[in-house]
Each structure stands twice: as structure tokens, then as C-alpha cells.
Amino acid sequence: MLGYRQFRRNVRLSLALAGAGLVCGCSGAVHQLPQISKDNLSLALAEVQSVDGRPQRHTISDDEVLDTLDSVLRRIGPSADQVCREMNTGVCDWDIRASADRRLNANARPNGRIEIKRGIFEYADNQEQIAMVVAHEIGHQAANHLERNHRNQVTGRLVGAILLGAVGAAVSHGHRDSAFVTRTAMNAGAGVGGYVGGIAYSKEQEREADYLSAVILYRAGLDLDKARGFLVKLATASGQKETGLLDSHPAGPERLAAWDQAVREIRASNGRLPQRQ
Ligand SMILES: [Zn+2]
Questions:
Q1: What distance in angstroms lies between residue 129's CA and the mean position of ligand 1's atoms?
Q2: Ligand 1 centroid to 77 CA: how many Å?
Q3: 58 Cα–ligand 1 center, Å
Q4: For residues 69-108, b (16+ Cβ closer than 10 Å) or e, as one string?
Q5: Does the global pTM surpass 0.85?
Q6: From ligand 1's centre to the CA of 106, what distance in Å?
Q7: Confidence of residue 142 (pLDDT cuts 50, 70, 90)
Q8: Using one digit for the tens of pLDDT, what is the confidence trace for 30-76?
């Protein structure tokens, strides 16, 4: 028989679990993104596995780096600006800089800061590939991922606290130190929730940044297939320690497969943004 006390506990727990659904309910992306099909994934995997040798770095001068970035920005600037204003949700004033750091990486920071590390220039075969990386970081800014990620982590922490706090309350009910146990559980829950929230969102956000990058390049009239080569490069280079690669970005066949599906969709819609979540 379910006593009153037991019933109350169950209500509290199910409320907490409903709250936990919030963590998974929102992806942190602005748009609905295509799902990766198994076929696309196995094609991408086969392609990456068939590449011989690892990507080659070529040395370039500082002037070349700056000239290339200038040229890339001239080519994609107008369409990037257009996409950002159309989305009307993120940061559209960017401070884009090349850094001397030779790692193969780039990042988007608060206040529209975008850093393209030198390794990107040294490994790229053409401007399209660099444009893809720059437009990817612009995508993070345009979709306000930094701010959303922060919000999500706060939400994740809150939900985690509610969830484990309720468990703590249920377990410790009637115990003399009940309040203390609950508070401890809440603290532990906050850590778990924040972690789960942050991880879950960033993967979707990475996919969205790639999608937006493809839209920007498409609208700018750049060759998306040339740009794609960089993802193949990243996929073959990932796992090789020497390149000091991409701790902050997913690289691999999934990313390539997602790019292919995005490009198919973008070509079919003539460069439209996908539906919002
Ligand atoms: Zn990214």
C-alpha cells in the first residue's frame, strides 16, 4: 500500500525526472539539422580509410597568411553578414585574426573574437578550405552558441541539482541530517548536470556551425567540394598526435557525412537556412 509519505516522494521524483528532460529537450542549436544516414556514414568512413598518408604542412610567410585571410574575408564577408542578419540571433560584428599558433585549430570567443591559427593556413590546399574554417567560426558567433552554451550549462546545473536534490531528499527523509544530505546531493548534482549539459550541446552546435559554414560558402559562390577536402584532411589527421589537432572540434567520418548531407540540402534549397528548432 502506498502511504502518503511514499506518494509525496514519488511525486517529487517524477517532477525531477520531468525536469531532467529539459537537458535533452533543447540541443543548443538554432536550426533543425539533417540526421546522418548510415549510408552516408559508411561512405565517409570508406573514403577516410582510403586516404594514403597524412596531410602535409607547407610553410608560408606571415604576409601570405595575412593576404590569404584578407582575400577569404573579401569573398565570404558579404554572405556571412547576410546569413547572420537573417538569423538575427547572434553576434554579427566579428574581430577575425590570424594567430601565430601553429596548431591546426580555430576558435570563436566572446565579443565576436575569432582566431584562426596558423596551422589552418599551413595545411589548407586552397582558399575554399580556409573559408570553410572561418565561416564555421562565424557560424558559432551568428548562432550565439557561446551565450547559449553558457545558458545551457546553467540550466543543466539547475536540473541536475533538482534531480539529485530530490533523490537526496527521498533517501534522507526522516533522517536528522536531512537538510545537510539534500544540500550535498544538490552540490554533486550541479556538477553532473553542468557537465552533461555542456557536452550534449556542443556536438549539435558543431554540426550547426558546419551547416552555416556551408550556407555562407554556397551563397558566396565558393566551391563546396573543394572546401570539403579539409574535412577529409582533418579526419585522416585526427588521432595523429604530431599535428596537435583539434581538441575542441570533432573530426572524423561523422563530420564528413554530416557535411555531405548539409550540402545536399543546401543545394536543393538554393542556400536557404534550415527550419528553426
Ligand atoms: Zn566549432
A1: 15
A2: 18
A3: 24
A4: beebbebbbebbbbbbeebeebbbebebebbeebbbbbeb
A5: no
A6: 8
A7: very high
A8: 999 998 889 988 999 899 889 988 889 999 999 999 999 999 999 99
